[in-house]
User: Fold this.
Amino acid sequence: MLPTLQVGPLALQVPGLMFLLALWLGLNLTEKFAPRRGMNAETLYNLIFAALISALIGARLSFAAQNFAIFTATPLSLISLNPGLLDPFGGFAAGLLAALIYGQRKKLALWQTLDVLTPFFAMMMAGLALSNAASGAAFGMETTLPWGIDLWGAKRHPTQFYALGLALANLALLGWQWKTTGWRDRTLFLFFVALTAGAWLFVEGFRGDSVILAGGFRAGQVLAWALMAAALGRIMLLDASKK
Assistant:
């Protein structure tokens, strides 16, 4: 775990740096991939940045609305760089809304855009895993296995690195499949969702901070099963419609 990196008088937030690294790599992949699918890379850059900026603003405002007393006492906290003052669900909703509005204004085809952005999404999943490793979030349950890591006062499964390895493997598989056989329209993003859900199913089984539902089911695994079923079901429907 390395939440901050001291560089002279500056204390750099390592989780944020990992996110920015993944963002840069993802944008580079998008720039190379977009022309192959007949899309303009600059338009996709603008789409991504509009979504990210809206997500950050939405995440902060949503968190502030839920913790109004804190921000009333310290209004400058609204512009704090602390990622702990962000509501991920509010951020996701704001980013998604901004992306949909921008895409509609630019008349972007939904499935074609999702396919082109799939390498970007795959790289961001790797960046999220690195960010969690740096911050200590999404930690694993306690273990006696030799590759366990010392975190939060116990030896734990390195779930962040499990997630990182699977994210990179998924990215490599998507790239290999594209080079060898190519992809039909609409299937690349769906296949990515199915692969990511499968990785999530595996990693969630070793998490030490999972939300447990009635009956002992892990909420993350239930959601992953639903996403995998939806993605694979959609792919099968597309295959059937081609026949």
Q: What stands out?
A: Residues 40-107 form one domain. The mean pLDDT is 87. The longest helix spans residues 41-66.
